[in-house]
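ok, trying the design again with the full structure, not the truncated one.
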């Protein structure tokens, strides 16, 4: 396939400082391919998994952190840092450079492009954790079994013999990659939720399935009054560092939200929890919340609200929907009316839908 502007030309432009001119992102490759043939366009989509896997490889090795802006690190330096073979690492970085992630000269000097810089761990909305997450083996092998979902099976269970959360309990390294990805999700949902709702009059917030507490940290960082209870599985909350509990304003509690939820708070949060579950299981979680809530209590369900028409919707929503299928079978993303029905079946009224600056909306519900 021929493209306008070879990787070599682009690389010298980038080294010359014209970083804004990156034109070889994977998306742009796909777009430019479409100007040539549909065959090439589809072929590039077919190879997306190769790019994903290469991105995980360099993220696992923290290559992007080893490349300095304006620096002159060579592949040999980076390979020595990571104790890997220079020639093989060159091939990996070269393939990524061909799609606009890193710039590599013929002399083996590596520099950043705007996309590779997003793999650094110290940039805002870093994609480092996403690169490590999307193709980690637990998820990767579930996708291989995706077809069983069409016959009412659960791909993850077919691949691993256990459900996703059991798998994470047994694979603590993967569980930490998952938690890190949740708290550094590129959707920016935790800050967006904190910015889009007035928590000032709230005394106690229980974050149900709150992961490692990022939503509570962001909310408490913005509002002085509330205290938080971080409620999640025992193995998740026991991994949370005391230093991340906002000087004692967050208390952690381990438990199972199908059994119970801490009672008596004035506000309950479910951030990207319901999409992990079937309607039946969501009803059980909502029932636990309802039992725990006092009269006048509020529930905030923070989720992507899927547009029914895919030609108008966000592709990330539909891909995430299938990720849920791969991990949990009948779990899924939902439309506004599906959320409304789900809430009503468990005695809640959807009172307000707050859009946020992220793709996640806040569905505010009260007990009927
Ligand atoms: C998709 S993550 C969302 C985490 C967090 N709310 C966030 O937005 O970053 C779902 C969370 O539900 C938790 N979870 C799953 N099953 C649970 C259970 N039975 N009881 C309590 N928490 C559970 C998981 O451990 C995980 O942290």
């Amino acid at each position: 396939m021929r493209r306008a502007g070879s990787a070599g030309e682009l690389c010298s432009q980038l080294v010359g400082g014209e970083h804004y001119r990156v034109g070889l992102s994977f998306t742009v490759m796909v777009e430019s391919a479409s100007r040539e043939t549909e065959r090439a366009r589809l072929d590039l989509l077919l190879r997306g998994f190769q790019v994903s896997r290469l991105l995980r490889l360099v993220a696992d090795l923290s290559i992007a952190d080893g490349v300095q802006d304006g620096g002159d690190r060579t592949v040999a330096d980076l390979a020595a840092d990571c104790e890997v073979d220079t020639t093989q690492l060159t091939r990996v970085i070269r393939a990524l450079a061909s799609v606009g992630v890193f710039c590599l000269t013929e002399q083996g000097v590596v520099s950043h492009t705007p996309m590779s810089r997003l793999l650094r761990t110290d940039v805002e909305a870093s994609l480092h954790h996403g690169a490590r997450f999307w193709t980690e083996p637990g998820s990767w092998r579930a996708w291989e079994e995706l077809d069983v979902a069409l016959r009412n099976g659960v791909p993850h269970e077919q691949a691993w013999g256990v459900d996703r959360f059991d798998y994470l309990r047994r694979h603590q390294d993967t569980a930490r990659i998952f938690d890190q990805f949740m708290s550094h999700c590129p959707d920016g949902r935790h800050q967006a939720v904190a910015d889009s709702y007035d928590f000032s009059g709230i005394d106690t917030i229980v974050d149900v399935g709150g992961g490692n507490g990022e939503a509570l940290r962001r909310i408490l960082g913005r509002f002085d009054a509330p205290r938080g209870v971080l409620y999640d599985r025992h193995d998740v909350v026991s991994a949370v560092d005391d230093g991340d509990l906002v000087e004692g304003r967050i208390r952690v509690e381990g438990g199972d939200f199908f059994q119970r939820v801490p009672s008596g708070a004035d506000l309950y949060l479910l951030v990207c929890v319901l999409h992990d579950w079937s309607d039946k299981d969501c009803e059980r979680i909502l029932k636990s919340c309802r039992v725990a809530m006092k009269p006048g209590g509020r529930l905030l369900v923070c989720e992507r609200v899927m547009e029914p028409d895919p030609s108008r919707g966000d592709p990330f929503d539909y891909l995430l929907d299938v990720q849920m299928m791969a991990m949990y079978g009948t779990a899924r993303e939902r439309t506004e009316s599906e959320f409304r029905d789900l809430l009503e079946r468990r005695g809640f009224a959807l009172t307000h839908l707050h859009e946020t600056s992220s793709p996640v909306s806040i569905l505010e519900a009260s007990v009927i």
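Keeping the full-length input from now on. Residues 165, 182-183, 209-211, 214-215, 232-233, 236, 256-258, 271-273, 276 surround S-adenosylmethionine (CB under 6 Å).
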